[in-house]
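Action item from last meeting closed. Structure (369 res):
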């Protein structure tokens, strides 16, 4: 293995190392995987308008998220089943995030529990929540996360049913027998049965609440004091409803292109959501971020920060904790160089004028809200 010089190189290493079922689970998208490709390609259609002859000797990338100070606007998305990638799984990711001074979001479907992840030491951690049909289960889980020191809930709102991930159907995807959904182990919901489809799709159909609606955001606020980020908003209409519901923030996400295919890339949906939120709550971007340049583009379009998912899992598979640390280091260095070459010394210097989008080229006005 030669030296890894960007986060994308970890994917090929992970593909070599992982069993096909595991790699396909992490790598695939829904149906035609159009949105999976588009999440990346849309970034390449945004160009820079760098400013020159600005003193960039000192660059400050620090920011705060929901009042918590972090070292850079690059955070870790929730990804399920991390011990399928590496024996240390979520423990390794938690330590790497903490060392980098940034946020880790733990998946509901983690292979390590909220208590186990908390035991790795201090760190700013968010908890991603799927709402189960049995609300007592949800209440218990939210309380456990809060007690374990988690700082916010990222409520996934785009998964009333699981998207059709054809690789998982072909592979009859199921968790390896040595692993469980650790947060649900004591509730008899920790195992996933073999199925003539994707085992995960069957699990979701049986357990996840399809009746979830905006009133449940209010319900969630009634059971926890943690701020709630709504993860899975890609339209202005839903951005307004999120603000109205009392959400503390929005994560623009298409679930890594794993749910509804032919939705826009998140970077393409971002500006519409930011405009609709009117600065009342922060908007974050999740999906397709692989370069420091991508981070800059997202911030120029109004994001307060970004979340990365697959790069973390692939690096974890390749090199464990060291791989995740390296992903965060490379992303940080690339972002710092992009800021310097763009003529920005702090995040508030990054403006819409620093980029040029397809809409700008076509002279189209932004969607009317």
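Sequence:
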């Amino acid at each position: 293995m030669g030296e890894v010089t960007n986060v994308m190189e970890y994917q090929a290493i992970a593909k070599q190392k992982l069993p096909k079922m595991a790699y396909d689970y992490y790598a695939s998208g829904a149906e035609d995987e159009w949105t999976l490709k588009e999440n990346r390609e849309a970034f390449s259609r945004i160009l820079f308008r760098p400013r020159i002859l600005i003193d960039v000797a000192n660059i400050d990338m620090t920011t705060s998220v929901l009042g918590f100070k972090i070292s850079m606007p690059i955070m870790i998305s929730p990804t399920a089943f991390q011990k399928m990638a590496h024996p240390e799984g979520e423990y390794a990711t938690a330590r790497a995030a903490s060392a980098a001074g940034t946020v880790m979001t733990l998946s509901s479907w983690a292979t390590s529990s909220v208590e186990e992840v908390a035991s790795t030491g201090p760190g700013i951690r968010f908890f991603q929540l799927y709402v189960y049909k049995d609300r007592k289960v949800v209440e218990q889980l939210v309380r456990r996360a809060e007690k374990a020191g988690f700082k916010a809930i990222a409520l996934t709102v785009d998964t009333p049913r699981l998207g059709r991930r054809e690789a998982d159907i072909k592979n009859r995807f199921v968790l390896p027998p040595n692993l469980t959904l650790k947060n649900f182990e004591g509730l008899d919901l920790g195992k996933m049965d073999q199925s003539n489809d994707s085992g995960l799709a069957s699990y979701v159909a049986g357990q996840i609440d399809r009746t979830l609606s905006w009133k449940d955001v209010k319900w969630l606020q009634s059971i926890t004091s943690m701020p709630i980020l709504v993860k899975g908003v890609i339209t202005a209409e839903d951005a307004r409803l999120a603000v109205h519901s009392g959400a503390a923030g929005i994560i623009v996400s298409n679930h890594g292109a794993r749910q509804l295919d032919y939705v826009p890339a998140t970077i393409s949906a971002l500006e519409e959501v930011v405009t609709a939120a009117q600065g009342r709550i922060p908007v974050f971007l999740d999906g397709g971020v692989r370069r420091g340049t991508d981070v800059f583009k997202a911030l120029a379009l109004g994001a307060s920060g970004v979340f990365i998912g697959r790069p973390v899992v692939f690096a974890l598979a390749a090199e464990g904790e060291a791989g995740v640390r390296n992903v965060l280091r490379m992303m940080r260095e690339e972002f710092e160089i992009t800021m310097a070459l763009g003529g920005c010394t702090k995040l508030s210097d990054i403006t819409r004028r620093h980029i040029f989008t397809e809409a700008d080229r076509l002279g189209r006005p932004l969607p009317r809200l």
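Note appended to the action item: The domain at 7-358 is CATH 3.20.20.70 (TIM Barrel).
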